[in-house]
Amino acid sequence: xxxxxNGLQDDPERTVKLYDEARRRWGHLITRHIxxxxxxxxRRWK
Length: 46
Fold this sequence. Notes:
- The chain is an all-alpha fold and about 45 residues long.
- About 85% of the residues lie in helices and about 0% in strands.
- The protein has one domain (about 1-45).
- The longest helix is centred in the middle third of the chain and has 34 residues, at about 10-45.
């Protein structure tokens, strides 16, 4: 549905590129955030 509204269905390659870019950009931040939480949690349990 979302893809249809934004006219991305016509250009799946562009959609994949946008998705990859977002995943690279946000994936890095999310991964860092999760690792920080893990470190804090481990410190608390020690």
